[in-house]
Structure formats: C-alpha cells, structure tokens
Specification:
27 strands, 13-stranded mixed beta sheet, 9 helices, outer membrane lipoprotein receptor (LolB), chain A, 2 domains, five-stranded antiparallel beta sheet, alpha+beta, Copper Amine Oxidase, Chain A, domain 1
C-alpha cells in the first residue's frame, strides 16, 4: 500500500512539474480595472494576454499573417512569430521571456515585454494579483479623455448633425422552457439607419430599414421591416405597420433630462461620465481619410458599465420599469459584455466624423411563468458590428407631423382583443 501511495504521489508531482501553472490575473490600465473578453494568465511568473488586449488598451495596429505577428504603435514596430522567443523591435533582435502561443483558438503574448516595447510602464501588485499598466499618450496637448470630452462639447455646440449607420447583428439564443427540451434559435439582423439629431431643444428623428433572417426557422425567407422614430420634448413616437404613428407613454420619464445626461455640453462632466461608465480610452495611430487628417480614439467597455453610478442614474429616469428593475439590474450586472469602438476626430474641427463598433454580449434571462407558459430561461449571445458616419453639421432638418399619433397602449389592447376574438371564432364548433 505504501508503495502504491508513493508511486501515486510521484506521478502527481511529475504532472504538476510538467504542466504549466495557469492562474487568472487582474488587469488595471491607467488606474482603471479592465476585464477583457478572454482571461489574462500568469504562467510561471509571466503574464500573458490575447492580442486584442494590446490593441484595445494601447491603440496599436495589429496584423497577423500565417505565424507572423506585427504590431505598429506610432514609431515602434514589433514583430513576433508563433512558437519563437525571438522578436524584432524596430529592426533590433530581442529575446522574449515566452513565445507567442495559441490557447483555445486565441493568440497569447507576453504582456510586460510587449507593453514595455511599445513604451508603456508595467507594475505588479502582488496583494491583489494585478498587473498595472500605465500608458498615457497625448495629441495636441490633450489626453485621450480630454480629447473625447472636447469633441463631445464641439458636437453639442454645433447643435445639429446627421448620422448614417450600418449595423450587423448575429444572435444565437437557447430557450429552456420548463419541462421541455431546449430550443435553439439563430437570427441575423442587418439594419441601415438615417438619424438627425438636434441638441437644444432635444430632437432625434431616425428612419430604419432592417432585414431579419432566421435560416433555421420554418419560414426562412428574410423579413424586411421599415420603421421611423421621433423623440422630442413631447415624448417618444414610432411607426407601426398598417397603423402609422403611435406615442409611447412612459409615465414619469423626463426624456429631455435623460438626453442631456447622455449628451452633456460640459467637458468636465463628460470626462467624469467616461470614468463613471468604466470606459478605457487610448489613442490609436493617426489616420487620413478623404483628404482629412484624423486623431483616432479606441474605447473599450465591459459589463461593469451596468454596475456604475452613471447607469443607475439613467435607469432612475424610467420609473415605469421599477417593478421589474431588480431582475433586470441583476441580469445586466451578470452580463458578459465586451465592446470596442474607434472614434475618428477631425484634427481641424474636432468633429467626430466616423465611428466603428464591434463587440459581443452574452446574458441569461429568466422567463416568468404565465397562464399559458410554464416559464423557464433564455441564454443569448449577440455579435455586433456597426459603422457610423456623421455629417451636415449645423443644418436644419424637418420632422414628421405626429399630432394624430395614437396611444401605444390602446393600440396593443385593440390588437389583443382582436386576437382573442379570432381564437374564440376558431374554437367555436
């Protein structure tokens, strides 16, 4: 028996010595916690992260060709190869403490070596198991936060602009109804949006053309939907098929105050909102487009936005949601969210002419039981990409006449009554 125990312990020790010791590590960027979509690992004293962490936090350009990785940040060029500890930094050969490798389909690289090669400072905070990265660039004497705040103030000061958006969503949901087998639903949704925005008084008018495609549905033909929406000091209005304009009556909602909180004209307040929302800002490499020079900001946002004071203040503006707000708040706080968007700011005007967004969100939602359904839960994952173009600064725009808009609740009540009547007719012998 003793021999068997000794052999067992020896095997365990060999396995422990042979296997890499992976441990999760916290990441802090410029004094702010950052939760990437993929885990940060500490392996034998070396912290490794995925390539997107470097791009999101430093704002560098990353290209990947075969086994070769190239990172460009301002005047620094770093070249690496999968499986090799030899790197080239601005043409000079360097030795890395660990070779880049692929784990679960993601390429991991040594954090300290890469960050410091690009000019960042890296510290280890052992008590909290945290890697602290400091990287503060400036453009035109402004930090990334100050640049974003100034552009926001300029956009608000000009008062009006047009925004064109192209958006693609891929949705994968699994519905688990109590007592039944799970059902999977996949859907693609593409949308083209034209929006006109005015700051004082607050007006937002948009037209949307959306195409929804559910390949695995019984009727897989894509469905096209066109809608319009108007938000002003009188409320929120939208069009419904075969009905026309309806008014959404959200009692207690101060829409103008809500919009002012989202589109503040005060740069100092805008900077504070950026921090409160848990956004991480960094400068990407400058760009040129259509003959104009642009500063580019990379912004990253995780699920901690829903735990922020900013979101709580926004949610308090919608008292009609209060009865179910606790469940909604819990779902949002547990949401796995990872969004990155780049903002292109004109160097002459400080207008935000372009923006690109990409990200994923995953969440679980409880489905309450009703008279016709036993309830259950739904797991949903959504991949999103969107491009924005802003123009027509300062130009006036017209909005549709909504004086004859019907009440949304009345319309829904009528449709419910018609559906119930139709079911009674079908079931009557």
């Amino acid at each position: 028996m003793r021999h068997k125990i000794s052999i067992f312990l020896s095997i365990v020790m060999v396995l422990l010595m042979a296997a890499p010791a992976l441990a999760a590590v916290n990441l802090d960027v410029n004094g702010r916690a950052y939760e990437p979509a993929n885990e940060t690992y500490l392996e034998n004293g070396i912290t490794t992260v995925t390539l997107d962490v470097i791009a999101n936090t430093v704002g560098c350009d990353v290209t990947y060709e075969g086994n070769n990785i190239k990172i460009v940040e301002n005047d620094n060029v770093l070249q690496m190869t999968l499986g090799s500890t030899t790197a080239l930094l601005n043409g000079a050969e360097k030795t890395m403490p660990k070779a880049p490798e692929v784990i679960n389909g993601k390429t991991y690289i040594p954090l300290r070596f890469v960050f410091e090669s690009l000019g960042a400072k890296v510290d280890w905070q052992g008590q909290s198991n945290t890697v602290a990265v400091t990287y503060n660039e400036t453009r035109d004497g402004l930090t990334a936060e100050e640049m974003m705040a100034k552009s926001t103030a300029v956009m608000n000061e000009v008062g009006r602009y047009k925004m064109v958006v192209n958006m693609q969503n891929i949705i994968d949901a699994t519905v688990k109804e109590t007592g039944k087998d799970p059902e999977n639903m996949k859907m693609n949704m593409d949308a083209d949006i034209e929006a006109w925005i005015q700051m004082d008084p607050i007006v937002m008018y948009l037209k949307q053309k959306a195409t929804m495609d559910a390949p695995e549905a019984p009727n897989p033909a894509p469905q096209a939907i066109e809608t319009e929406m108007l938000m002003n000091q009188d409320g929120i209005f939208m069009t419904m098929p075969e009905i026309g304009w309806v008014k959404m009556d959200l009692q207690g909602l101060d829409f103008e105050e809500l919009m002012k909180q989202s589109m503040t004209q005060d740069p100092a307040t805008a900077m504070q909102q950026i921090k409160d929302m848990g956004m991480s800002l960094s400068f990407a490499n400058d760009q040129e487009k259509n003959g104009k020079q642009y500063w580019v900001l990379n912004c990253t946002m995780g699920g901690d936005i829903f735990k922020s004071d900013y979101f709580k203040q926004i949610s308090q503006q919608i008292p009609t949601l209060e009865p179910g707000m606790a469940d909604i708040q819990k779902m949002l706080e547990e949401m796995d969210l990872d969004f990155t968007y780049s903002v292109w700011i004109d160097k002459e005007t400080f207008y935000n002419d372009y923006m690109n967004l990409a990200g994923t969100m995953k969440f679980n939602m409880d489905i309450p039981a009703t008279e016709v359904s036993p309830g259950g839960s739904m797991d949903m994952a959504m991949d999103m990409k969107a491009s924005y173009t802003m123009s027509d600064y300062g130009l006036e725009f017209s909005t549709p006449d909504v004086t004859n808009a019907r009440d949304f609740e009345e319309v829904m009540a009528e449709q419910a009554a018609q559906m119930a009547e139709s079911q009674d007719i079908q079931t009557t012998p």
